[in-house]
């Protein structure tokens, strides 16, 4: 097996198949990162393992511990490979007896975990490995055996056990023998037992350990036997997280509802982060001095310092900080990996999450980014309300109205009642409930996999809520399909869905023997909203998409959006807005990228938040906020109660992308260009009382609305009901500007969004992301390399060496 010259890549498939086929975890242990830089390796000549017989089935040909070791865990053994040798030979094997106490079965080596003191068979499997400062920890997730540890200097070995029948009956057993006897019955048959922890919750909370992390805290005590700082060990279990402190005590982080933890990590600021119930969320807390219960309700933040949830769980009653993590399933693992700048990377079956913890004490001011195989949102700040124009597909999109008779001027043609009575009242559709699952519905033609947005007005509600459902089967009194919307709020609304069939039934409901009146129902293909809100922009006319830099083989992945050449009017993106969609009276921010292209055009391009009907009024009075860019590159900020500001010739140079961030805070607008503060101007806002919309490629002036001007390209448009700090605005610009270069990649390689493994190399500052399509190597938001061999289990990386399976 050779090493890749660029990354020092190790593919376990090149090793012995019995190892590669069964590996459950991989860890690259780089002794140069230890407290003494790995010098302890030169003080081991008197240890048993240094002097044991070499060239056996469980011991390689080298005596001293490798400077870099690749540790591969299988369910019943742990193998340490010599990472100093390009051929990666086996250096040492720890056999973990899979049957625990009881007799040694034929063909099963004794190994650690074997005990002939009697008792039944207690199966236990290896789940995880970690090593630091010469101390190896092996986690187990079956039976009563929670884990094992071995110190390569003192040669003290422990086995951690928890008896579920007695929560306080937890022991750390000192294994008899030494490391050279690790695979012999003598190593674990005579165990002087000592109670490891008494009272309260016991070690491991549960004996099933899913993951382990180790760190050396500042001012950690030095072990006199090894002359090395004592590590702190955190284990994620089926009952929470247990922390084995450097003074030997154990502190448990749990909830009284019994939530499990799948993955655990130490953050750059010294806190404990663990994935809660798989991918449902990330809890982050300072290390505690005594057992810590973060609350009886495992689906809420409660006492935790930070709790970021998977946004797909919001409707299920979960609560946590904003921003939210990308949606995913419970069984996706939720592996957490700290990277530079106090950012956490988290894997899910729907893609990669990046959580930038700029303000740990003020979590709602932090940032997230979602990266999948077909989009990259860029950084979304705080209470994000929309993330658009983030696609990598260059296919142009054309939107047409799919609803028949959505304005209800005279009749209900095109609509069918199910368990309801539908009538026209004041040019609106009135849906009367007749006893449950009552709706007016219509079939529309859709394309499987495409994104669509339904916009509609709720004019009156006399019952509990207005509801909108979709289905691929025709509705009836007992079937309603998938609920997209439920609200008591009057006004304009928008909901988005991805079509799963060629015919989709849209349903507008009432309930509890009352009625709801609807109007202006529209369904169009949409540019997706990649944020937690999932309210895409409807496409009117045609919008073209081209790479933001380069072309052909040199094209960047991210695309820019513009109306087509030769078109002027009626080509734009839009969706309704309410105060819950975007509260203009609070702090808010809007960030986008734009450039002047080769088109020659007059009038104005831009975006606006404006009243739907401008007739007979001054646009300033009906447009709370807008930004325009004219043909000369002049850029203006305008709106009601805004002292207008114009930045001359901002976009006068062709094909130069620039990042514009506008922040509304404390009665002023603050304007930033390419991460730098430019100016501020007084501005106050009120929320609209009449139907308003967000429009891109639109700008209103006097009584005129300018649609579809094509001389400006836009990308990565985000709006948030929170205000980033100047430092965050600078970071957003610096991290995103590399996506606007030739050859820039920004997505997971291949077609799979399900992330199978993560690893971070703090020497190269690369995040390695595995999927079934291969490994994607990211420097923050940009993918700088990829492989094409699928990753199934784990990745580990250190100083350019990568081990994966």
Structural write-up:
The chain has 805 residues and is mainly β. Among the domains are: 401-527, Galactose-binding domain-like (Jelly Rolls, Sandwich); 535-740, Jelly Rolls (Sandwich). The protein contains three helices and 60 strands. Strands 29, 31, 32, 34, 37, 39, 40, 41, 42, 44, 45, 46, 47 and 51 form a 14-stranded antiparallel beta sheet that branches. Strands 6-7-8-9-10-11 form a six-stranded antiparallel beta sheet, with no helix packed on it. A hairpin with a 2-residue loop joins strand 31 and strand 32. It starts with 8 loop residues before the first strand and ends with a strand. The relative contact order is 0.09. Residues 1-7, 14-20, 116-122, 164-168 and 187-204 have low confidence and may be disordered.
The number of helical runs is 3
What is the average per-residue confidence, as pLDDT, rounded to a whole number? 85
Strand content: 35-45%
CATH topology of the domain at 535-740: Jelly Rolls
Q: Uncertain regions: pLDDT < 50 for 5+ in a row? A: 1-7, 14-20, 116-122, 164-168, 187-204
What is the CATH class of the domain at 535-740?
Mainly Beta
What is the share of helical residues? under 10%
Would you tell me the structural class of the helices and strands?
Answer: mainly beta
Backbone shape: elongated
């Amino acid at each position: 097996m050779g090493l890749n010259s660029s990354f020092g890549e190790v593919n376990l498939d090149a090793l012995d198949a019995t190892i590669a086929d069964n590996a459950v975890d991989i860890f690259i242990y780089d002794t140069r990162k230890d407290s003494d830089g790995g010098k302890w390796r030169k003080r081991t000549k008197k240890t048993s393992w240094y002097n044991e017989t070499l060239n056996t089935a469980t011991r390689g040909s080298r005596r001293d511990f490798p400077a870099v070791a690749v540790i591969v865990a299988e369910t019943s053994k742990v193998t340490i490979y010599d990472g100093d040798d390009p051929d990666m030979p086996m250096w040492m094997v720890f056999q973990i007896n899979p049957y625990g106490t009881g007799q040694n079965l034929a063909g099963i080596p004794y190994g650690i975990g074997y005990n002939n003191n009697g008792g039944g068979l207690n199966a236990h499997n290896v789940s995880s490995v970690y090593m630091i400062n010469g101390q190896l920890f092996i986690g187990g997730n079956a039976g009563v055996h929670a884990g094992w540890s071995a110190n390569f200097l003192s040669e003290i070995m422990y086995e951690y056990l928890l008896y579920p029948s007695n929560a306080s009956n937890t022991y750390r057993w000192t294994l008899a023998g030494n490391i050279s006897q690790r695979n012999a019955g003598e190593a674990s048959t005579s165990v002087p037992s000592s109670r490891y922890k008494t009272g309260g919750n016991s070690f491991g909370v549960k004996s099933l350990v899913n993951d382990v992390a180790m760190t050396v805290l500042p001012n950690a005590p030095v072990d006199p036997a090894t002359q090395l700082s004592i590590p702190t060990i955190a284990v994620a279990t089926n009952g929470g997280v247990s922390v084995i402190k450097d003074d030997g005590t154990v502190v448990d982080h749990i909830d009284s509802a019994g939530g499990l933890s799948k993955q655990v990590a130490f953050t750059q600021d010294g806190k404990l982060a663990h994935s809660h119930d798989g991918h449902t969320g990330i809890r982050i807390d300072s290390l505690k001095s005594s057992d810590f219960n973060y609350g009886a309700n495992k689906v809420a933040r409660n006492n935790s310092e930070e709790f970021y949830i998977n946004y797909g769980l919001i409707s299920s009653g979960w609560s946590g900080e904003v921003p939210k993590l990308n949606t995913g399933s419970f069984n996706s693992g939720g592996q957490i990996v700290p990277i530079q700048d106090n950012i956490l990377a988290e894997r899910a079956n729907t893609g990669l999450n990046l959580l930038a913890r700029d303000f740990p004490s003020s979590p709602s001011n932090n940032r997230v980014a979602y990266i999948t195989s077909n989009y990259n949102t860029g950084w979304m700040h705080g209470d994000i309300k929309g993330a658009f124009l983030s696609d990598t597909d260059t296919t142009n999109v054309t939107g047409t109205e799919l609803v028949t008779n959505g304005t209800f001027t005279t009749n209900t043609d095109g609509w069918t009642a199910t368990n309801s009575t539908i009538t026209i009242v004041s040019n609106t559709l009135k849906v009367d409930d007749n006893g449950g699952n009552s709706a007016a519905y219509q079939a529309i033609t859709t394309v499987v996999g495409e994104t669509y947005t339904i916009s509609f007005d709720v004019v009156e509600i006399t019952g509990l809520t207005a509801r909108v459902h979709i289905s691929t089967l025709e509705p009836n009194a007992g079937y309603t399909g998938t609920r997209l919307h439920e609200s008591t709020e009057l006004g304009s609304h928008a909901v988005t869905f991805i079509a799963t069939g060629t015919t989709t039934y849209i349903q507008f409901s009432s309930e509890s023997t009352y009625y709801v009146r609807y109007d202006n129902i529209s369904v169009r293909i949409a540019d997706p909203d990649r944020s937690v809100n999932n309210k895409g922009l409807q496409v009117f006319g045609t919008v073209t998409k081209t790479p933001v830099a380069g072309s052909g083989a040199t094209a960047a992945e991210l695309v820019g959006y513009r109306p087509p050449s030769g078109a002027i009017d009626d080509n734009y993106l839009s969706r309704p807005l309410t105060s819950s969609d975007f509260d203009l009276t609070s702090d808010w921010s809007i960030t986008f990228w734009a450039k002047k292209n080769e088109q020659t055009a007059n009038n104005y391009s831009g975006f606006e938040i404006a009243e739907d009907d401008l007739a007979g009024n001054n646009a300033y009075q009906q447009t709370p906020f807008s930004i325009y860019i004219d043909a000369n590159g002049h850029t203006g900020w305008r709106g009601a109660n805004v002292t207008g500001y114009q930045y001359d010739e901002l976009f006068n140079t062709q094909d130069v992308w620039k990042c514009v961030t506008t922040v509304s805070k404390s009665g002023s607008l603050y304007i930033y260009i390419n991460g730098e503060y430019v100016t501020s101007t007084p501005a106050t806002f009120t929320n609209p009382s009449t139907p308003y919309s967000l429009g891109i490629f639109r700008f209103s002036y006097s009584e005129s609305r300018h649609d579809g001007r094509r001389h400006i390209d836009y990308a990565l448009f985000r709006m948030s009901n929170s205000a980033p700090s100047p430092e965050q605005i600078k970071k957003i610009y610096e991290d995103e500007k590399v996506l606007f270069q030739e050859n820039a990649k920004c997505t997971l390689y291949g077609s799979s969004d399900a992330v199978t493994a993560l690893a971070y190399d703090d020497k190269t500052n690369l995040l390695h992301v595995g999927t079934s399509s291969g490994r994607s190597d990211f420097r923050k938001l940009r993918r700088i390399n990829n492989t094409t061999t699928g990753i199934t289990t784990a990745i580990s990386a250190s100083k350019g060496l990568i081990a994966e399976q």
